[in-house]
C-alpha cells in the first residue's frame, strides 16, 4: 500500500506545487521512506529517458514538405527556392576586409537585392525582435563558452563558436535555439553597451546569402564559414557590428 | 508569403521537432510520422484563426495527436487486412519494436538507448504519450491535459503508472539499475 502522499510527491517532483505545499511535501519526505524512495526512482527514470531515449527531430525533407504544403494552402504555390537566382558570391569576402568599404558596397547592393534575400533579412529581423520582446533572449545564460557551445550541441543542429569578447566590449550573454528560414539556428547573444547583438548560425543548403543590409534601424551582416551560414543583427552602428563580425570570424578559424 | 502564414510559421515552426517526436512515438507501421506531421501542420494552419492565447505548443500537439487517431481509424476501416508480420512491424528477437536509430540525433545511440526507446514504444498509447510530453517535452500537467483531452487527475495517474511500468520493465529487461540501489 503506497503512502497517500505519493501523488503529491510526484507533483512535487514535476514542479506542479505552490511554494508552501512544496515545503509541506519536503517535510513529509524527511520522515517517509516510501516517498523518499519514490522521489529517487522518479529522478532516475527521468534521467534515463532524457539521456537514453532518442529524441526524433524533423529533418530537412520534412521541413520542406511542410513549407511546401503551407505554401500551396496559402495560394502561392510551393515556396520559391530562396536566394538561388542572384550571384552574390563575388562579394562574400568583402565583409572581412575593410569595414567601411564593405558596408558601403553592401548597402548599395542591398538596394538591388532580389525579393528572396529580403525574406531572409525579414526572417532574421523577426527572430531578433521576438527575442527582444518575448523575454526569451537566451535559453542558456552564460559568459562561459564551455557552457554555451556544449549546450548548442544538445539543443540545435549546429555548434558555432561562442567566445566572450568582453575585453573588446562585446560581452557574451548566452545562447538560444531559434529558427531562420525554417532551419534550426543556434544564436550566440552579445551585449555591446546598451545594444543586444544576435549572431545566428544555421546549416546552409547552397542558397546564396545577402552580404549585409539595413532595415528599420537594424543592421545585418551575413557571411558563410565552412558549412554554416551566419547572420549578425543589431541596432548598433555599422562599425560596431562589423567589429564583432570580425572577432567572430577570427574565432572561427580557417574554413 | 501572406501575413497570416508568416505569423503561423513564426509560432508553429519552433515546435516542429516536438510535433515530429510525438508523431514518431505514436505511429506504428504502415502509418508514417512525416505524413501525420504534414497533415497536422496543414490543419493547424487552416484552424489558425481559432487559436487563442500564446501557448501554441499544446494546441499544435493536440492536433498531431488527433491526426494520428484519425489516420489509425482510416487504416482500420480501409484495411480489414491480416495483422502485419513481425518483420513488417520491425520487431527484434525479443518481440520488441525496434526503435530506428535516427541520424538526426546527435547523441551516440547506444544499444541501451535503443532498448529504452523500444520499452517506451511498447507502452500503451495513453501511457506512452504522457511520458513523451512530460519527460521529453517538459510540459506541465495542464498542457498535457490539453494535448490528450484527459482531466489533470487522469494525466497524473497515467503518468505515475507509466513511470512505474517503465521502471519495472527496464529493471526486468536485465539492465542494471539506473541508480544506486539502497
Short description:
Chain A has 255 residues and is an alpha+beta fold.
Topology:
The complex is a heterodimer of chains A (255) and B (182).
Chain A: H1 6-13, H2 19-31, H3 33-52, H4 60-73, H5 99-111, H6 115-133, E1 140-141, H7 145-155, E2 171-180, E3 183-192, E4 195-203, E5 212-215, E6 218-225, E7 228-234, H8 238-252
Antiparallel strand pairs in A: 1-2, 2-3, 3-4, 4-7, 5-6, 6-7
Chain B: H1 3-12, H2 16-26, H3 33-46, H4 56-79, H5 111-122, H6 125-136, H7 141-148, H8 152-172
Helix pairs in contact in B: 2-3, 2-4, 2-6, 3-4, 4-7, 6-8, 7-8
Task: List its traits.
heterodimer; A: 255 residues; alpha+beta; Phosphorylase Kinase, domain 1; 2 domains; 7-stranded antiparallel beta sheet; 8 helices; 20% strand; B: 182 residues; mainly alpha; Arc Repressor Mutant, subunit A; 62% helix; disordered C terminus
Descriptive notes:
The complex is a heterodimer of chains A (255) and B (182). Chain A is α+β, with helices and mostly antiparallel strands and 255 residues long. Helix content of chain A is 44%, strand content 20%. Chain A has a seven-stranded antiparallel sheet with strand order 1-2-3-4-7-6-5, sandwiched between helices. In chain A, α1 (6-13) runs parallel beside α3 and α2 packs across α3. The longest helix of chain A is centred in the first third of the chain and has 20 residues, at 33-52. Chain A starts with 5 loop residues before the first helix and ends with a helix. Chain B is mainly alpha-helical and 182 residues long. Helix content of chain B is 62%, strand content 0%. Chain B is built from eight helices and no strands. Chain B has helices spanning 3-12, 16-26, 33-46, 56-79, 111-122, 125-136, 141-148, 152-172. The relative contact order of chain B is 0.11.
Amino acid at each position: 500500500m503506497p503512502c497517500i502522499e505519493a501523488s503529491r510527491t510526484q507533483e512535487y517532483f514535476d514542479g506542479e506545487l505552490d511554494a508552501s505545499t512544496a515545503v509541506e511535501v519536503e517535510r513529509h519526505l524527511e520522515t517517509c521512506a516510501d516517498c523518499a524512495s519514490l522521489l529517487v526512482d522518479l529522478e532516475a527514470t527521468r534521467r534515463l529517458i532524457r539521456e537514453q531515449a532518442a529524441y526524433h527531430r524533423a529533418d530537412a525533407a520534412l521541413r520542406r514538405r511542410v513549407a511546401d504544403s503551407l505554401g500551396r494552402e496559402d495560394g502561392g504555390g510551393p515556396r520559391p527556392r530562396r536566394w538561388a537566382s542572384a550571384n552574390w558570391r563575388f562579394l562574400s569576402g568583402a565583409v572581412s576586409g575593410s569595414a567601411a568599404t564593405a558596408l558601403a558596397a553592401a548597402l548599395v547592393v542591398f538596394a538591388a537585392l532580389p525579393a528572396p534575400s529580403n525574406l531572409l533579412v525579414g526572417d532574421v529581423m523577426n527572430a531578433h525582435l521576438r527575442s527582444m520582446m518575448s523575454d526569451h533572449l537566451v535559453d542558456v545564460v552564460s559568459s562561459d563558452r564551455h557552457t554555451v557551445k556544449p549546450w548548442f550541441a544538445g539543443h540545435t543542429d549546429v555548434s558555432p563558436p561562442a567566445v566572450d569578447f568582453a575585453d573588446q566590449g562585446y560581452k557574451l550573454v548566452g545562447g538560444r535555439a531559434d529558427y531562420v528560414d525554417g532551419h534550426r539556428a543556434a544564436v550566440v547573444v552579445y551585449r555591446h553597451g546598451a545594444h543586444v547583438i544576435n549572431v545566428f548560425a544555421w546549416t546552409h543548403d547552397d542558397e546564396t546569402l545577402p552580404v549585409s543590409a539595413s532595415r528599420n534601424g537594424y543592421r545585418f551582416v551575413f557571411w558563410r564559414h565552412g558549412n554554416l551560414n551566419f547572420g549578425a543583427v543589431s541596432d548598433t552602428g555599422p562599425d560596431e557590428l562589423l567589429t564583432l563580425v570580425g572577432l567572430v570570424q577570427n574565432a572561427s578559424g580557417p574554413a | 508569403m501572406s501575413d497570416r502564414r508568416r505569423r503561423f510559421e513564426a509560432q508553429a515552426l519552433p515546435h516542429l521537432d516536438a510535433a515530429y517526436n510525438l508523431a514518431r512515438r505514436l505511429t506504428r507501421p504502415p502509418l508514417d510520422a512525416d505524413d501525420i506531421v504534414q497533415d497536422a501542420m496543414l490543419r493547424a494552419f487552416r484552424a489558425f484563426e481559432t487559436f487563442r492565447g500564446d501557448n501554441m505548443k499544446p494546441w499544435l500537439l493536440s492536433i498531431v495527436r488527433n491526426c494520428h487517431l484519425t489516420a489509425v481509424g482510416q487504416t482500420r476501416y480501409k484495411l480489414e487486412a491480416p495483422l502485419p508480420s513481425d518483420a513488417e512491424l520491425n520487431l527484434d528477437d525479443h518481440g520488441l519494436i525496434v526503435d530506428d536509430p535516427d541520424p538526426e540525433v546527435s547523441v551516440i545511440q547506444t544499444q541501451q538507448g535503443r532498448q529504452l526507446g523500444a520499452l517506451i514504444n511498447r507502452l500503451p498509447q495513453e501511457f506512452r504519450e504522457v511520458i513523451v510530453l512530460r519527460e521529453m517535452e517538459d510540459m506541465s500537467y495542464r498542457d498535457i491535459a490539453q494535448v490528450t483531452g484527459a482531466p489533470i487527475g487522469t494525466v497524473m495517474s497515467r503518468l505515475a503508472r507509466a513511470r512505474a511500468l517503465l521502471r519495472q520493465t527496464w529493471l526486468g529487461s536485465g539492465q542494471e539499475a539506473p541508480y544506486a540501489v539502497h
